[in-house]
Design a protein that fits this description.
By secondary structure, this protein is mainly α. It contains three helices and no strands.
Amino acid sequence: MHTTNLLQISTLVTHRERPLCSERSLRAVARVGQAVNLAVERFVTVGETIADDNLEIKEDMYEACKEARAAGKHLSELPHLFVHFLQEVHKINT
C-alpha cells in the first residue's frame, strides 16, 4: 500500500509539462456556461409569463424567477473561475 502511494505521488510530481486543458477545452467550458445562462433566462421568461397570468402565485413566482436568474448568472461565471483555477494550478506546477 505504501509503495502504491509513493508511486502515485511521484507520478504527480514528475508528470510531463503540459497544460491541464487545451484551448479548445477551455472554449468548450465557456460555451457551457453561456448555454446554461441562456437556458435559465428562457426558463425565467416562461416563469414570469406564468406569474403574469396567475395573480395568486405572481409574487412567489417572481421571487423564484429572481433567484433563478441570479443562480444562472453565477453558473455562467463558473467556467471563467474554473479556467482561472486551472491557469493558477498550471503556474504552480511549472
